Fold this protein.
Amino acid sequence: MASNSSSSAQQRLRIIAGHLQKRPEEENASVAAQECKAEAPRSEPSSATPVPRRRQEIMKWNGWGYSDSRFLFNKKGQAEFTGKRYRLSGLILPSLKDWFEGTFGANLQHRSPATPSLNLSAVAPPHLNQPFVEDLKAAGLSVSHDPEDRVFRAHGHCLHEVFALREGRIGRVPDVVVWPSCHNDVEKIVELACKHNVCLIPYGGGTSVSSALECPREETRSIVSLDTSQMNRILWIDEKNLTAHVEAGIIGQDLERQLNERGYCTGHEPDSMEFSSLGGWVATRASGMKKNIYGNIEDLVVHIKMVTPRGVIEKSCLGPRMSTGPDIHHFILGSEGTLGVVTEVTLKIRPIPEYQKYGSVVFPNFQQGVACLREVARQRCAPASIRLMDNEQFQFGHALKPQVSSIFTSFLDGLKKFYITKFKGFDPHHLCVATLLFEGDRGKVLQHEKQVYDIAAKFGGLAAGEDNGQRGYMLTFVIAYLRDLGMDYYVIGESFETSVPWDRVLDLCRNVKERIVRECKERGVQFPPLSTCRVTQTYDAGACVYFYFAFNYRGLSDPVHIYEQVEHAAREEILANGGSLSHHHGVGKLRKEWMKESVSGVGLGMLKSVKEYVDPQNIFGNGNLL
Amino acid sequence: ILSYPRHPVLKKRDDFEDVLEERRRSSDLRYALRCYTPTLYKGLVPCKVSMLKSIVLQSDHLQCVIKQVSSESGDSTECVAEEASLILDEMAHRMQLSTVRFFVFTLSKAFKRLFRSVCVNEEGIQRLQQAVQEHPVVLLPSHRSYMDFLMMSYLLYMFDLPLPVIAAGMDFMSMKFIGEMLRMSGAFFIRRSFGGDKLYWAVFSEYVKTMLRKGYAPIEFFLEGTRSRTCKSLTPKTGLLNIVMEPFFKGELFDVSLVPVSISYERVLEESLYARELLGVPKPKESTSGLLKARRVLSEDYGSMHVYFGHPVSVRSLAEGKIKRSQYNLLPRYIPQKPSVDTHEFLNDAAFRLVRIQEENMVLKPWVLIATLLLQNPDGMDLSSLTEQTDWLRHLALAFGAFLDWPDHEACSEVISCSLALHRRLLSVSAGHVQLSVTDAPQVETTPEEAVFQRAVVVLSCASYRNQILHVFLRPALLAVAMQSANSSRKDDIYNCFNFLRNMFSNEFILCPGDSVQDFEEACYLLMKRGVLQVLEHEIVMSASGQSTLAFLCSVLEPFLQGYQVVCRYLCEETNENLTEKEFIPAVRSFCFVSLSSDLQKNALAALLRLKAVRKVKV
């Protein structure tokens, strides 16, 4: 689904050539192949410019994403999505209102609007380390202590962080923001930070959901936010080895677009890729939707350069694998900004795939769906992406269907529904849907597609078209925008994830969902919450499971606290059911309390001793992880 | 839920309703054939009896054990699998609604003849109806009579609840025809002992767990393992409890509801049978012909019966903070794992608490009070003083939280004469003097030995009624004895003595392990509230008016103290070095022919072994 190929005429040509060449075979193919119409529901490349220093000029200061893009209920009570950036932009979503009111017991009359603008007087004056700031300026670095800049970098996107901003509550914020523009700048900053003993918090895309960007309350030194966004160049591309050397501040969509222009991609597509940065991926052990083909971040990196208080850490060559003791990359991957700043990364790249196709399969129930995914994993034939949504999420996805343009389409939809529920006897309250994305050369994709659909058929799965598939993926990109809409109407929510062995997937999903419902009830939440999950990644030995959890908080005095208690209970439940502490969100400060239990006391001690060696002054004092 | 209240008296209990009333008014046949539509578990996976069997045999757990057993024994896996299949055939129930209907019809007839009323707390039924929908349910009735599980299934049918599958002893299976009938009404049969048999255990546990996981039906079993011959709750077994809890521990189920059920009889059907058994007459083997011979029980009046469905206890909340479920993370779940020390402790504790709930919800009839008094006065009592003392005891029992079913608007003397009439087989009343005795007066000449035996039967039968109320008096009684023997009014000394006694008697009574302090405080609280004691900071002092209560409480425990002393004396005086366990009971019995039941003797020996006063030497 790599971003729109309109600018890539070459690619188009190649695809068309492919079509022409393969005509004869295609006639036998059972599934009609269409040209790659896949279009990512994300920013148009033409409108994209590098991330500005003053992010608040194009992005919301108290919500997700671009200022021009948001969901709202218009005067007629219909949901629509504003702006021009996305596929959904400017469209009416007629069924969202009913779903929203029905699911949460919410009412459009009951609004909980956000504070419209930042109250600058609520921001504490910066606690500056004057000699440090002067040294920075002397070194020619770009520095700011403007309150808007500081507030923007004081949070990630955890519910409590965004909720506080909407209410206009501002906690401890960084005192200074500094924008290095290359590796050497970072070296200089770290050196000065050590010299003047200030606290550095690296800031990439700001999409953290683990409280990783929160300033530690107990920090008394001046806190400096090191914004990497200006280190955003691709330094070189090596077509012989298929690698690219990139500055770590580049955000996902820019990296992918610029590589696309050269005919390449990394294939790394975390759901946050519009905003999250390469350095952030490395620092949190990110995972991309298409990891089945391209691998997760740890499989993609060939070389990492990181600046630490002890100096620069990097390997001496670009060999694809080494046996030189424990891999030092693994001290960096997942270090969550506690050891240093990742400045440059050499990544594997791949030629842009010739062909992409979405798909979807409907299963009579979640159990069958999981059994099918397990079989796909066993046969190691997972497509670029395969995800299984449970019934609630399937219905959620349906609520995001844009207004149909013709009677014919709506007739077809009706027919489809009739076929599945009446003719095939699927219970609409149990059926669930798997969404698929195939990628590669056209012949192989079609072959692959057939293989997967054949397996699905064995588990009672029915192919349900590309449209359903694509909408499924869209959900993951708009979910964060939707949360902002919910918060306008007393609904708060969040997502969290885990990884778990195959044999426990079903039990874990059921138990965690039920635990959420029960905890909400016990804590006086008036309406049953939305508690839904999907299996988003398959591995040889297990799967990644993603939960959405949201509820109507009318009548509760401290909704965020209740939310946190429920999430805490849900995490306990995950751990008790054999799930991991995190698959890709990381630990941050939110999940720190379970670190010891997760990696053993010795394991934690190892990590601590590394921190002690690398950063004895705790310059990188964001307090994550350990 | 399980920590019992500090104010036992304030405990609220549900009201009862007589379910036989309706039966006496309308056709039993039509009733047995009525439309039965039970409330179902929301997560039910529909599953036929035959499918159940193949699911069990194909399960990863059983397959794993089959492989293990095969590699240990050298038999082929097919051979072991075949054996497993046979075990399952022998064990499995074959529930059929038609058989159940037959039972409903015949039991309706039988119950109406046997009992004046069968009272059930309908609120408990409603709670159960809720619980059944939410989570798989395990029914844990007390076990005093063969009637228990028939009555349970009968009631569940009556209230449109799913019929349970019941873990029954293998003894029933040997009953021709009846065994099969029971099987078809939901009983499954397990061997009494299969300690080392890995395969048997695997088949059995997988069978139970599969039914639980699928929500197939409520599982019913007896925590006490067997019928209590003394009407005193037995030390619970934890094996099956572990099996039904494991699916929760391993995350296979969100929760399991345990429902303690207390079934109490005004007159136990097996009354004198039990007494004889305790005196060494072997229990008649379960057989169909035996059952037919026992028809004569149908002609007697057994008074009323009470069934109290307790509050469902969630395994999840029970295990909260006590069981770390993540301990199961590192081993594939199908590989059988012995419960860890912590788990074992938890199971034991839970089992005790559940039995305590059973005890607390057991309905006590006035006769229980009378029996207690008559036993303390072997020479009998005048009716007037019996009436007076019963009334006194009634108030004491109520103050201690007894669940007493005392008719509201009847004079005390009226209530007593009714009770005496019902239990006339155990007493003689002449000229206003009541005495325990054998009423079927010896027409034929009996040897003195036989006469003593007859007397012992009566005493033990009567004791079984007194035993029903022991749990109410137990803690205060332990305190009373402790005060008497401590020879000091210092709280520490009394507590130490209390603790010793409690420890000594923990095979005899249901005393939750580790609750020593709590029990002590409860006893102090109850006696203080009754004005018997004053509990100061470091001292416990008897009040002037407390003498009679303390004396009564001491004499409640007296027979047990004496019994234990006898056992000790026997062991000290009579035994040579080696005494086999088998010889022990007949030997003690002949040593001192007081009304010592084998149950007490076994408990005493177990306690002495536990306290390391006696050593077990393997020969």
Chain B has a mean pLDDT of 87. Residues 448-486 of chain B form the longest helix (39 residues).
